[in-house]
Amino acid sequence: MTKLLGISGSLRRGSHNSALLRAATRLMPVEATLEVASIRGIPLYDYDVEVQGLPAAVSQLKEAIAAADGVLLVTPEYNNSIPGVFKNAIDWLSRPSADVKRVFGGRPFALIGASQGAFGTTLSQAAWLPVLRTLGTQAWWGGRLLVPRAASVFDESGALKDASVEDQLRQFLAGYVSFVRSSVRSGR
To answer: Which residue range forms the structural domain that includes residue 94?
Structure first.
């Protein structure tokens, strides 16, 4: 069984990115699961807090990532880049630096995202690339999912209603899971 962890970079209750992540959980290939994790409760990074001990929300998310075969980041795009709250969470997860290899090193990561704009999350996903490289992840480049005009893709309850996007998401997940499985077999 291939075990993925999905993290939405939005805290908003009605987030289209969280809705996209929920849709992904039901479209997973056979013999694969996608557990949803949250960045809610992670405080702003502060070294003075770090030296007193990692906050519980950070420690729990780090362990969830370390236990997963791969991680799917579902990123909004704010001001043409990574949302601050999402980057802050990753910054916390990279502390202490001695833990980076255990949590991120060689682990397969993939990016998807939805936005209100016409270009999806193109710039946000591009902004994640140097971060993922710095952390030593094994980023998957075999597929891309950028969901533009997200308000028209989801219904009022947050359910995915666009069959084309659903098909794209299903294909993306199949490709990513295949990549994760080959990474795990090769010993990552």
So the answer is: 2-185
- The alpha carbon of 42 is separated from its chain's Cα centroid by a whole number of angstroms, namely 16
Compute the distance between CA of residue 160 and CA of residue 20 in angstroms, rounded to an integer: 7
CATH of the domain at 132: 3.40.50.360
Count of structural domains within the chain: 1
| Rounded mean pLDDT for each run of 10 residues along the chain, 188 residues in total | 97 95 97 98 97 97 98 96 97 97 97 95 96 97 94 94 97 98 79
